[in-house]
Amino acid sequence: MKKTIFLLLFITTVIGCQISKKKQPKVIFKKYNETLALEKQQNHKKSRMQFKLFQSKYLDMNAIFKPFETDLEYFSEENYTALKPFILEQDIPTLQKNIKAGNISYEKLTLFYLYRIRKFESDSTKSLNSIISLNPNVLKEARARDKNKKENTKYSIYGMPVLLKDNINTSNMPTTAGALVLADNTAIKDAFIVERLRKNGALILGKVNLSEWAYYFCVGCPLGYSAIGGQTLNPYNRGEFETGGSSAGSGVAVAANFAVAAVGTETSGSITSPSSLNSVVGLKPTIGVFSRTGIVPISSTLDTPGPMTKNIIDNAIFMNAMRGFDKSDAASKELAVDYFKNGFKQKLKGRRLGVIKSLLTDSIYAATVGKLKRAGAELIEITPPEVPLNGFLTLLNIDMKNDLPKYLAADADKRIEVTSVKDIVAFNLKDSLLRAPYGQQLFEGIVEDKTTLAALEIIKTNLTNSGRKYFQALKNDDLEAILSINNYHSGFAAVANYPTLTVPMGYKNSGEPISLTFIGMPLSERKLLEIGYAFEQLTKVRKMPKNYQ
Q1: Active-site annotation holder among 127, 130, 226, 270
Q2: Per the CB 3.0–4.6 Å rule, which of 230, 258, 338, 419 could disulfide with 253?
Q3: Is 246 an annotated catalytic residue?
Q4: pLDDT in tens, 325-335
């Protein structure tokens, strides 16, 4: 009897997951008239949500999908539906289990995501403008992974399709930072973290949209806008909720299940913000945990990449996959930490956590604190001191003035003619309507800032001291983490060089996601992940965007 049942299940699975032999109608991406939608957008209560455009004036999605035309012609909606239970919202251990069981393959997993991206991005009522480019070789690479499954382990990123923020260098796709001036930035080598991902078997599916120049370009402009990618939209309510930034495309793509996970970057809030507003898990690590080599910079003082995932376990797996000492990055640390070894315990009892008293006016935060207390956590109310972040913009100005030319000289395509921020400002002025429709005030400010390097060092020291003073309760009260909301305290964490982990906490009455952010001492990422996992398992609040299921 058992054999009969097993056979029936096996046959059902095989039939359900076979690629269709019937040719499917070709899907064509068409530009739509966005006039009425933009007129409606001007009534939004937030000025930076009053968009000037939705669609990219640069990208041709038909060209981006051309390498996959033949394969997708024989991948039907029925194939897609049959694979859904094995892939959608599943964590990496479950995906690897399904592959070992023969329910899916790495090729089918990749085809599923390509089909899903095309399905939604070709629909003018559901497009999110999150994809900038796709790896033309990804299906070939997936088939190679299928031929060599010996590296497939339960907690491995082997064969997992991932997306990268488009300020991270990849050898076979442009790296634009969302800017037209870098549209031809193609003859480049992989960033160090991309080398690590490939070495560990990950499939680089493509690149995602971002706030142009990692949101250090224009003042008051929309989060998630870039000249290359257009306006990224939040899947929980397109045009109503902000995407967060600057890793907008990373957060949106993970929320919409366009890949297993994505990599973002943060200077101050750029992982935490889009993770929070798209109900995904984001970790901004201590500077030096990951290399920055081959990443378009804002600030060598504050920049770091980090993983953005649907759950804590996947986040930890990616932490392991991206780490590694890089002699080319002066901040890089040689660490022996395993971020997931022996798994995580669902333990909150006895955890000493700081509760910011002023945030208790938020009903969701207050309710969450109550849940943690009932689970046995030791909660200590704190009132951080008022400290200034004087010189923060100056730090970013001078770092970018010095760091961006270094990237352009060492890591960019040699055909890129600009060599400085000043050159980029001049380039944009030649066609500001296309290249900088919201202005480039911050770039102009960088050019005008004459702060000396000696003065900058004083600013850095003062900022670090201010950030650590703000979180002094971590030491004074022997706390394992301080609890914040979204990216409310990302600036203080950035200058203190404290890691932050944001985990879905719930949804407002409007449906907008809200997250709990754990802030810890330097190099406490493993501890934050353990606490975050226990919180995630206690609450299990994350839900998919209803129009992207």
Answers
A1: 270
A2: 258
A3: yes
A4: 999 999 999 99
d(CA 106, CA 510): 38
Calpha distance 517→269 (Å, rounded): 11
**Whether pTM exceeds 0.85:** yes
Q: Average of pLDDT values for 159-174?
A: 97
Where does the pLDDT of residue 17 fall: very low under 50, low under 70, confident under 90, or very high at 90 and above?
A: low
Active site residue 119: no
What are the strands, taking DSSP E only, across 124-258?
131-134, 161-165, 203-208, 225-226, 230-231
| Inside any domain, residue 250 | yes
The answer to whether 124 is a known catalytic residue is no
> Per residue in 294-345, pLDDT tens?
999 999 999 999 999 999 999 999 999 999 999 999 999 999 999 998 889 8
Catalytic residue among 56, 105, 133, 246: 246
Q: How many domains does the structure of the chain reveal?
A: 3
Catalytic member of 108, 127, 130, 165 = 165
- The kind and range of the H/E element at 387 are none
Co-location of 143 and 261 in the same domain: yes
- Is the domain of 443 the same as that of 480? no
8 Å CB contact between 257 and 205:
no
Using the 8-state DSSP alphabet, how is residue 374 labeled? Answer: H
